[in-house]
Amino acid sequence: MILPTNNTRHAVCPYCGVGCRVAARVGDGKASRISATKSIAPNFGLLCQKGALLDSPEIWNPAGRLTTPLVREERDQPFKPVSWDAAAAFIAARLDALRKEHGKDTLAFYGSGQLDTEASYIFTKLFKGSLGTNNMDTNSRLCMSSAAAAYTMTFGADAPPGCYDDIHHADLFFMIGSNMAANHPVLFTKTRKRLAANPMARLIVVDPRRSESADAAHLHLPVKPGGDVALVQYIARELILAGCEDKSFIEHATQGYTAYRDALLAQSPDVLLQTAGVDEHLMSEAVSLFMLADKRLSFYCQGLNQSTRGVDKNIALINLHMQLGEVGRKGAGPFSLTGQPNAMGGREVGYLAHQLPGYRFVADADHRAAVEKLWNIPKGSIDSRPGLSAVEMFDALARGEIKAIWNVCTNPAVSMPNVDHVHAALRNAELVIHQDCYDQTDTGAFAHVLLPAAQWGEKTGTMTNSERLVARSEKLFDPPGQAMPDWWIAALVARAMGFKGYDYVTAEQVWDEHRTLTRGTPCDQHGITNLRLLAGPIHWPCPDDDHPGTPRRYTDGLFPSDSGRARFFELEPAEPDESTDSRYDLILTTGRHAAQWHTRTRTGKVPELDRQYPRPVIDMNPHDADRLGLADGDTVRLYSRRGAFTGQLHVTDTVPPRTVFTTFHFGDSFAPEANANRLTNDAFDPKSKQPELKFCAVRCVPVLANEPSRQTAAMTEATP
Ligand SMILES: Nc1nc2c(c(=O)[nH]1)N[C@H]1C(S)=C(S)[C@@H](COP(=O)(O)OP(=O)(O)OC[C@H]3O[C@@H](n4cnc5c(=O)[nH]c(N)nc54)[C@H](O)[C@@H]3O)O[C@H]1N2
Ligand SMILES: Nc1nc2c(c(=O)[nH]1)N[C@H]1C(S)=C(S)[C@@H](COP(=O)(O)OP(=O)(O)OC[C@H]3O[C@@H](n4cnc5c(=O)[nH]c(N)nc54)[C@H](O)[C@@H]3O)O[C@H]1N2
Ligand code: SF4
Ligand SMILES: [Mo]
Q1: pLDDT(430) > 70
Q2: Contact predicate 327/205, CB 8 Å
Q3: Least crowded by CB within 10 Å, which of 73, 236, 475, 696?
Q4: Which of the four CATH numbers 3.30.300.20, 2.20.25.90, 2.102.10.10, 3.30.390.10 does domain 7-64 have?
Q5: What separation in Å is there between the alpha carbon of 189 and the centre of ligand 3?
């Protein structure tokens, strides 16, 4: 354990949205062992295996890094190393030419919740302000956009009401569509500690699979994939019938309750049970646990968000907590877990296609005018039309309506649904810029320009974690070669294009500008100064220098909506976008392994992590394996209506009959047909535009040892 000394720096773990802070001792331009410190929020000495292995030399080896800007005119040419100025001049000239010839909306940006707030801020200013196009979206669209939309619809503004301290006070944990044990491990450890300390406390997990989290639960509700609205409504309805309603909270702080209540009572419990797909006795047990508990805390993530009903799934749960008076109450409430370390910060700078900084929206004339004034750009510079969301953006690229895409800190050639179509779009683009810290990524293979980014630990930046805690991630190391921070690269290109207002020298200057833009907004960070961030992290809202920060919001029952009240919505339980039939008779759901991070560009390099999940695995119930004549360890192929995927069969009763599970960690660079997103459906939720990554219809066939060509077989058989 390293003790804090003068030469100890703190950085934010670059993996999940728990936002653990790690300490490293620096000296001689190097940093020594990374650890966590007991006194430091939010993890207080805890780290999971991914965080603890951040000092693995493989992560820092310059051999696997992009170290100089690389440019090629055409994709069949080799890349040439160039200086930063030459790369910026090349990009500026190409973007300018496309903009003049075809219009500003032919340029697009695709970013990431792993970028720090400073980088997200400058890219937003460059695209929405200076270039005047809202064709700017990020992987948060695949991740948190349903949660953001649901919070905005119900409370009037995005972000969770509570904080991690609520774990120490809750007596019922309701984890729905979250495998916290694998994906937010430090929070799961905190939850288990609370369960151990309070023998009356209970954990319910709602997941079609018996995940690692479900294994540790008192009650596992194996919901039918997509059946969450019905499941939550069943519980809410039974609770109403039992008189569990907080009448005072409902009357003083909400609107729309009567209509919500009437609509729920009009539902048939049998139909709800059938749609949820869970036995009545298990559901009755869940209802009893809700009734016995005093403080119920819900954690949710992609099992709710990644669905064509993602917003409704979120709202059903928020409705339930409002009915129980559990918003702004210590130890209770709806708490969406953020996936990436700074997806919250990205939402705060307004990096999604419909947003502007400070939870403002492009469609709102007052919001546009306020931001134009703060950015010192002519009135009317910001377009009033929301730009294209992730799926729509790659569609427009495939059709040739978008011509240039600048892709930063995300690997869409692996992670987008229906990824064959995304590959075709990238091949069709006139200009692909890919900005990454690592060499040899799947998306980089499509690029004309590769820009070397300083990675975590090599730059100063600010991150907001799942609980609205804003922390400074300090620079520990120098980046290799010419790699530079993402914000610096954005500002360099903006200046090369002749735009004013990008003369930043430090990340602190960018932060100061960003926090000013949040002043008076629901995510007010004006009081979070650089000086205060040196001392430690602070929860927003924090309007002034002497404000202590706000771990819990809405404690006064006042909400940032027009009426000042939170709003109930009536919902219809409905089926997912795609259905099974005799040809595609299995439901595929996708997710993550505890030891791998997304497209493996970092965890795949760390032997201790990679060996835990070194190749694609398909989990299948023994009944299906018997029915299909398959055995554990067989190489099998899944076909959906869109493509094919090959993996090793794992026969296990953790998945229910007729449902199979795999991860999306592997791309074409690993093996042909290793990418599960060849199968997934790019249908999206109409309210959040978040795609359906958790449900598609597939069939499973054995792979024959001597078959001619996998790709050809896949193409012929995939045709419905
Ligand atoms: N180790 C690791 N940790 C990570 C990441 C990683 O790649 N690796 N990624 C980070 C990111 S960006 C994110 S967004 C989070 C994601 O964190 P999670 O949402 O916890 O991760 P997933 O595995 O995608 O999905 C969670 C669970 O949803 C279940 N599920 C599938 N369909 C349904 C359904 O219809 N209803 C319900 N109730 N559940 C369903 C799946 O079986 C799965 O167990 O993890 C973060 N943490
Ligand atoms: N089937 C299926 N697909 C999914 C999901 C699912 O559950 N199922 N989940 C979706 C979700 S929630 C998410 S968040 C996405 C994640 O998908 P991606 O964002 O595509 O995945 P990553 O591997 O995290 O990509 C990050 C890239 O940025 C690079 N990088 C790391 N640090 C830096 C840096 O500081 N600067 C720069 N410029 N680059 C850096 C990495 O090397 C890597 O290439 O996947 C989505 N896709
Ligand atoms: S729980 Fe998340 S933030 Fe914490 S060490 Fe693990 S991956 Fe990093
Ligand atoms: Mo995510």
Answers
A1: yes
A2: no
A3: 73
A4: 2.20.25.90
A5: 11
